[in-house]
Amino acid sequence: MQLGTRWALGAPLPSGLPEVVVIAVQAVEGDLAGVDTDTSAWRWTLTWLEKKPVIELDDGTVINYDAAEDSATITQPATAVEDDEDWI
Q: Where are the domains of the chain?
């Protein structure tokens, strides 16, 4: 059994993560470095499901690992879009 953990955005990642997951976390963190949002209190949460890591950021971003393809998928939270045409 593997236990999950939490760590701060930008802090060193837990050991044992597949390299593609590490790259995905670094990509998300790199994108956030360019936004004008205070992320100083944001944390990552690692959960192991069926021996595969699932990582979620406090803003709702999720990184899932596919062991069969050795790939990581980043899913970002949906944002509401103001629609001036809501009368249609």
A: 5-11+20-32+41-75
